[in-house]
Specification:
The protein has about 280 residues and is an alpha/beta fold. Helix content is about 50%, strand content about 20%. The structure holds ligand C2E and magnesium ion (3 copies). It comes from Massilia solisilvae.
Length: about 280
Amino acid sequence: AARQDGPGRYRFHTWEMERAIRERVSMESFLRHALERQELALQYQPRVSMASNEIVGVEALVRWRHPALGLVAPGRFIPIAEETGLIEEIDMWVLNEACACAARWQAQGLPPVRVSVNLSARLFQQDGLARRVRAVLDEAGLPPYRLELEITESTVMHDIRAAQMVLHSLKQLGVAVSIDDFGTGYSSLSYLKRFPIDVLKIDRSFVTDVMADPNDAAIVRALIALAHGLDLEAVAEGVETIDQLTFLKANGCDEIQGYYYSPPLWPEQLALMLTKKEHSSLH
Ligand code: C2E
Ligand code: MG
Ligand code: MG
Ligand code: MG
């Protein structure tokens, strides 16, 4: 379509592409050094139980303090890291950092929480994942049940037999596993029941319009029922309003995560929040 708009339009397109490629190449080379320069940092977003109104978990979310661009969200660099293979190193760094942080909170006597870490497909497919996770837990001094690994549907559906084996080894280790962004990918329900997983995280895209769109409301209800039918916990992502919260609670959702309760926080802010017992914003 760009060609048909005439030569000027086409050149504009090329210029835009060039700029995009330049940014990519520069991001890529900066990203290679981000780890050694200690430019990566973690924020933690609380996950709240509907039954107790308490923070029961936190999700570690990686940020990049880029020297020129400032704080860069993972959406801008995780895809590049995945293509270049840097993601494995980044995910291992996140795992180490999150476990060390959780162990610190535990040592400080803060209320117990489970820390969730997002795992890329590439790391999930690496040999000896459970062994590596165990080494990280040992090093941090964190009990396995305090760690949850978040993987996506495509990660487990990529190679079902291999995924089953990895999931069993993680189960044996004693860490929890959740399926992230659930409902957005392709997963065969008949396989889902055979995976030893613990949590379904209902994707934000269904939660956003749950009050306005009857289809989304039906989907969310069905996903909660599916989770419970498979003996899994249902967690809703991206909860921003009291109406969404009320809907989710009325439909038996176990936990919620989202801006309504809290955005992702720096470790000190999260620790402060954990020390405050009253979570009065929830009803
Ligand atoms: P995710 O795992 O589904 O994480 C939830 C995302 O939703 C986070 O975005 C979080 O900030 C955002 N969010 C939470 N509550 C709300 C809400 O109420 N409204 C809206 N609009 N957004 C909300 P973030 O931090 O930008 O992360 C984006 C994605 O990047 C994550 O999605 C995850 O897939 C990936 N990611 C983050 N950290 C890591 C990591 O350490 N390793 C890997 N492999 N991926 C990561
Ligand atoms: Mg996640
Ligand atoms: Mg998610
Ligand atoms: Mg999501």
